[in-house]
# Entry
Amino acid sequence: MKKKKIKVKIIIIVLIIILLLGVIVFLLSNRKESFKESITINIGDKIPKSNDYFTKDIKVKIKWASIDNYKVNTYKGTMSYKNKDYNIKLIVKDVNPPKIEGVKDITITVGDKVDFYKDIKISDDSKDELDKKVEGKYNLKKPNTYKLKYIVKDKSNTTTKDFKLIVKKKEEVKKEKTTNNTTSSSNKTSSKGYKVEKRNGLYYVNGILIANKTYPLPSNYNPGGLLEVFTTNFNKMKNDAKRDGINLWIRSGFRSYSYQQTLYNNYAARDGKAAADTYSARPGHSEHQTGLAADINSLDQSFANTKEGKWLNNNCYKYGFIIRYTRNGQGETGYIFEPWHIRYLGTDLAKTLYNNGNWITLENYLGITSRY
Ligand SMILES: [Zn+2]
# Structure
């Protein structure tokens, strides 16, 4: 019996010893496990070397696979301890969120474009591609104050900054538009205060029929030829000129819309539109279509220096005609000097515009433009 008891005791002791050994082995293996720890650094921090993270009495060597310490990731490495290698990890974290600097409220006028990032500085310590956007609803065409926010994200963090977008009314332009709207009705006046009217598609300024680059004639307007008032007064002038030994003749009188179209198109094809516009009217804009204008004798500026040209320049006003496109008037009339082109206006106005030989243009006198 005693021997049996002793046997049992020995077995129990052996079992306890085995158990203890197991615990020791477990603890030892656990100790090895502790080497397999992962190391965490923040983005941009130094990559740990052997001695940075282990006490001096434990000599280890660390080898990392290639690491970009500016990129959030988990990197692998090995650690050698007593000629044994252990896998370790380096976790690169991005702790700091991106920075958004220079945020302030933005004020624009209706219809303007907006550049939200013009004065904004965005920075981040990661090499991550940043995701940036402006969040919130707004309408650039609708005056209002819109509450918006910048949102910038790197792979780990989000930064938000509030701001206001103030869309203002376009006050000045609105006023102008209102003025235009009223002036386009019958109350319109020229810059010199003359009444501008549209009657049956024709423009009259201070009662004077106007055909220039700004004021066109309807394409179907066709008085059928030179008006009687033109012809009568021209013949009078022509006869008086003859007595002075001057021969005046009408080279080109009335021109219909379609004829002017052909003429202008030919000039434009020959010289280009821009050049043609300086001496030829586009269809609907020619004074010849009024029946109140004509070209006399020559279509060359040298006509001004001939005796006929000089006589016409000095006397036509007496018969109610003006030199319509004066030597220095291109900026106002829109046409080069045409010493041959006369327009009937009646003697009073013609005399005023003659201005003792220093011609005033009709546009200047009435305060109107001549521009396409
Ligand atoms: Zn002409």
User: Anything to note?
Assistant: Residues 29 and 319 are 125 Å apart (CA to CA).
